[in-house]
Design goal:
The complex is a heterodimer of chains A (207) and B (91).
Chain A: H1 2-5, H2 8-20, E1 28-32, H3 39-48, E2 52-57, H4 59-68, E3 72-75, H5 81-88, E4 93-98, H6 105-111, E5 112-120, H7 130-135, E6 138-141, H8 146-150, H9 154-169, E7 182-183, H10 187-196, E8 203-206
Parallel strand pairs in A: 1-2, 1-4, 2-3, 4-5, 5-6, 7-8
Chain B: E1 2-6, E2 15-19, E3 30-39, H1 41-49, E4 66-74, E5 86-90
Classes of the chains: A alpha/beta (207), B mainly beta (91).
Chain lengths: 207, 91
């Protein structure tokens, strides 16, 4: 139950971002923030869909998570976008899932292939889309709360959760769960632990 | 049933042990006994920002979206689930 409850919101987000961007076998996929909550699941799902997966992060802990799930690690603090794009692709990544988003979308637009697809979860900003224009690339915004907020296509999320349960039960999707245990009465401590930025994986509360 | 409620929002606000009415199952719904829940960044933002975020419920608020648990009751019209099923979801 600890691992299961770690999945729904972030796993649905990962699934929607990848499928809307048309991930499939043979595509080169770059996940920005590949060790994060959405990112580490997107890495696993992109692998499951047969893509060749690359993921950005920094530091040994993030590198370990990214490599454990089978992606090629890119240290964004030491490798320039133009350099890793030239190193790993012939003209850019087919799909980029930018879970960092915001100003990082500029890096995604630089690394995307002609007619490629960028998905992001963070686009609350003004940004110059000129690179997107000249590459004829597409930008997909994933806002997972829409079905709940607007009572819109909720059944679609149930279908996705059924697919994710199957993929997970087959061993292709495992969430990283923070080792600290919190009871219901300790829910405030759980929120504080997430806020501290020191959690490694999903913070779970057990009743 | 026991619930941890936020009587006010804010970074320093505390969840307080409370007793609330147990929900009864409605048509097209199932009632789930929650075994575990996970904390998402959006939950933390709701706690810290309250009404400044358009999706926050009014206080006293019961937060949380992701859950896992067991189906305890089945509402009228529900197909594909039975009492005792282990389920997960986001609500």
């Amino acid at each position: 139950m600890r691992e299961t409850t770690a999945l729904p919101l972030v796993a649905i987000t990962a699934y929607e971002g990848l499928t809307r961007a048309g991930v499939k076998s043979g595509k080169k996929v770059l996940i920005h923030g590949g060790s994060g909550g959405v990112g580490h699941l997107a890495v696993q799902l992109a692998k499951y869909f047969g893509a060749e997966v690359f993921a950005t992060g920094t530091g040994d802990k993030q590198k370990a998570i990214i490599e454990k799930f089978g992606a090629t690690f890119i240290d964004f603090t030491t490798e320039k976008v133009a350099d890793y794009t030239a190193k790993y692709t012939d003209g850019g990544f087919d799909v980029i899932f930018d879970t960092v988003g915001g100003a990082n979308l500029t890096n995604s637009m630089e690394a995307i292939a002609l007619n490629g697809h960028i998905s992001t979860t963070v686009s609350l900003l003004e940004i110059d889309l000129t690179p997107l224009h000249f590459k004829g690339a597409s930008l997909h915004v994933v806002f997972m709360l829409i079905p709940m907020l607007h009572n819109f296509k909720r059944a679609k999320h149930a279908e996705i959760l059924e697919k994710l349960a199957k993929i997970s039960n087959e061993g292709h999707l495992t969430p990283v769960v923070d080792e600290n245990q919190f009871s219901l009465e300790q829910v405030g401590d759980a929120y504080a632990h997430l806020a501290s930025g020191t959690a490694i994986g999903k913070v779970v509360v057990e009743n | 049933m026991k619930a941890m409620l936020l009587n006010e929002y804010g970074e320093s606000a505390n969840f307080e042990v409370s007793e609330i009415a147990k929900p009864t199952v409605k048509a097209n719904h199932v009632l789930v006994k929650i075994a575990a829940s996970s904390v998402n960044t959006i939950d933390m933002m709701i706690k810290n920002m309250g009404a400044d975020l358009p999706l926050s419920p009014a206080a006293p608020a019961l937060l949380g979206m992701d859950f896992s648990g067991k189906v305890e009751a089945i509402g009228e019209g529900v197909e594909g689930y039975k009492v005792g099923d282990e389920v997960y979801g986001c609500a």
